[in-house]
């Protein structure tokens, strides 16, 4: 297997044993970017010179006989809605196309302490609003397993980069499935931690009560290691949880004996791709064969989750995006007669259609006369969705369902039908409403060799059990070793 196809933990061992240098590794991944980026288009910015300089510095450290951290010298990428000091952070929006943050997000600071090689910033749906990475203002990203298909979204660039070998690891953000769904579509591992487990400071806000940063990796071992790095309380984020961060790598054990798995009937419904349902149920049977107990459960308010999400998220987005008005920073429209016209022209010219759509929905839901009927009612239903999970977790340890109701679809297939696109979030949105952790792991393919992801849902702050179940399943199969061939390249 080529260097760019290896997971970070294998590459770390190779660096420690001096079988490779960080410069060799970084050059191999940059060469892979040169080879396939034209087909995949996972990146918005590639920081080639900085990456090579970082790699050389790590090699010098190894040569001096010093110990290196887990990610030290290993090339990865960061979603372009996470602030990086001195490197453009555009949110894939024309309104921020020249924005260079004066500070690093907390997760970037935590990563920097490990001294990884950062290759650049990955593409996304504009302001993370979308599930296909077609809503980027700059270009769509293509799925490495079939470049005619979407990679999922909004963290499609991060998932595609890891799947294509143009990054060994990546960070994404998840507001309604934006890590787990692209991980499923691209055949990689993606985790949304418990809300508040990872600091959101420096993540450009979409829906503040739903957003969460998490890792996208080639396997569960890398996911556990990166979660170790980025998790923890942050004084700069009042919503981050003050709770001891366990060593997630201790959960990398193959043991699900006696564990109770809940299979929610509401997630296996008419309209779901039968190949997806079959692959996930086969994976559950495999876990059952390994000693887990499977019970059918009910999450009765699941049907209302999509409607609830698409009131709460746009309402928060309308508030968060009010700051993009051409006054303080970002692009500004010219030739305006007064302040109101300048703001109107700026937002009209520089924000994309999906962003405008969600701002309008949000402002409508928050407007006088409709607040109680829509937004307040959505908050009450959100509570019911959370209570469904609370009740279920009194009976079971984890819940398993698909990460997405279908495999990756063709670029352009759903972009003109927002409602159909929103329904793609049916399996992922409820977790964000409840603030729970979830992980997507590869569990098979459809007849066209497109990846399928199994989603494992856990109790709040119980990422350890998720990792244990995901790792046990992963190691019993070989899907995690498969790599996208990019048309035979």
TrEMBL record:
The keyword Transferase applies. Residues 24-466 form the Amidase domain. InterPro entries: Amidase, Amidase_CS, Amidase_dom, AS_sf, GatA. Its EC number is 6.3.5.7. Keywords: ATP-binding, Ligase, Nucleotide-binding, Protein biosynthesis, Transferase. GO terms for biological process: translation. The keyword Ligase applies. HAMAP family: GatA (MF_00120). Belongs to the amidase family. GatA subfamily. NCBIfam families: gatA (TIGR00132). This is Glutamyl-tRNA(Gln) amidotransferase subunit A. The gene is gatA.
């Amino acid at each position: 297997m080529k260097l760019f196809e290896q997971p970070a933990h294998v590459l770390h061992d190779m660096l420690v044993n001096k079988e490779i240098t960080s410069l060799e590794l970084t050059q191999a991944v940059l060469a892979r970017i040169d080879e396939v980026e034209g087909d995949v288009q996972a990146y918005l910015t590639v920081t080639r010179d900085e990456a090579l300089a970082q790699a050389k510095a790590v090699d010098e450290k190894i040569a001096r006989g010093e110990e290196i951290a887990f990610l030290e010298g290993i090339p990865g990428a960061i979603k372009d809605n996470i602030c990086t000091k001195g490197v453009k952070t555009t949110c894939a929006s024309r309104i921020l196309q020249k924005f260079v943050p004066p500070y690093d997000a907390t997760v970037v600071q935590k990563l920097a302490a490990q001294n990884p090689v950062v290759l650049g910033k990955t593409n996304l749906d504009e302001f993370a609003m979308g599930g296909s990475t077609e809503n980027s203002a700059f270009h769509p990203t293509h799925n490495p397993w079939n470049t005619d298909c979407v990679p999922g979204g909004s963290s499609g660039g991060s998932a595609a980069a890891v799947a294509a070998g143009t990054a060994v690891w990546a960070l994404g953000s998840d507001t309604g499935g934006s890590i787990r769904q692209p991980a499923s579509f691209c055949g990689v591992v993606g985790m949304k931690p418990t809300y508040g487990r990872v600091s959101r400071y420096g993540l450009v806000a979409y829906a503040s009560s739903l957003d969460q940063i998490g890792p996208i990796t080639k396997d569960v071992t890398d996911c556990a290691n990166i979660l170790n790095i980025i998790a923890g309380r942050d004084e700069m984020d009042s919503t981050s949880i003050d709770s001891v961060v366990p060593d997630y790598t201790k959960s990398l054990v193959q043991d699900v004996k006696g564990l109770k798995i809940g299979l929610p009937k509401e997630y296996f419904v008419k309209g779901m791709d039968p190949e997806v349902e079959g692959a996930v149920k086969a994976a559950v049977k495999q876990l059952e064969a390994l000693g887990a107990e499977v019970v059918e459960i009910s999450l009765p308010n699941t049907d209302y989750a999509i409607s609830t999400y698409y009131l709460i998220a746009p309402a928060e987005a309308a508030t968060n995006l009010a700051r993009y008005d051409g006054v303080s920073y970002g692009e500004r429209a010219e030739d305006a007669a007064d302040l109101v016209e300048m703001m109107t022209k700026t937002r009209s010219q520089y924000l994309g259609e999906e962003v405008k759509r969600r701002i309008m929905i949000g402002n409508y839901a928050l407007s006088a006369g409709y607040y109680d009927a829509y937004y307040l009612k959505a908050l009450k239903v959100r509570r019911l969705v959370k209570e469904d999970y609370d009740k279920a977790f009194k009976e079971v340890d984890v819940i398993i369902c698909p990460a997405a109701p279908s495999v990756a679809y063709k670029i352009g297939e759903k972009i003109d039908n927002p409602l159909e696109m929103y329904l793609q979030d049916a399996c992922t949105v409820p977790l964000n409403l409840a603030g729970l952790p979830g992980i997507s792991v590869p569990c098979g393919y459809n007849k066209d060799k497109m990846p399928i992801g199994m989603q494992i849902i856990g109790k709040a702050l119980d990422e350890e059990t998720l990792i244990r179940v995901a790792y046990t399943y992963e190691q019993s199969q070989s899907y995690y070793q498969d790599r996208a061939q990019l048309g035979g390249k």
